[in-house]
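Reply to dn_fold:

You asked what the input looked like. This is it:
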Amino acid sequence: TSGTSNVADQPITGKDEGSRVLSDMDNIYSFEKSRDSLQPYSQRTADIAVVEAGLGLNVNTYIMMPPTIYGRGTGDFNKQTIQVPTIIRSALKTDQVEMVGNGSGLAGHVHVEDLALLYGTVLDQLLRGEDIPHGKKGIYFAATGHHTWAELSQGVADALYQLGAIKTRDVKSIRLTEAAEKWAGGNELVTELNYAAR
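and this is what came back:
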């Protein structure tokens, strides 16, 4: 499992090649290699290493690249995702939901159960012996819809306010550096790619 932050743009700092809509029918592997040569990002670097190791060892690789995941997992291990719970925890500490900049970045999303169905579908096809794209062509997107960060933040604010957990429905815009300190241990790249990108 990987994530679409690997191919996301950087609208706050402008340190990217610009926004574009990608499909898993595109050459995502080459796009990741190009982006990583300009600005290494550990998750993207790992994707490249997995594909290249698979090619070198003659092992088929399949990488799922989900966007923002929502919903509560039902498995035995990790039952929460990252972004939405992070925004919620931060709001409970500051008594207000915050977002990076104006929240205009458009991000994909997928419910955790829909993502599990994708894994099941790929596994089922492999067990039936079907030859599905792998290696450089085996990177799969899993979005079922889209949201802006402002929409997501407002939804969280409305829900927390209704529960009486925060005192205002107003979403506060914060700078990337502040969000990075609160949500990602000071890592601005991780914050921008995961909480502000398009």
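The beta strands are 63-65, 68-70, 98-100, 106-111, 139-141, 145-148, 172-174.
Hope that clears it up.
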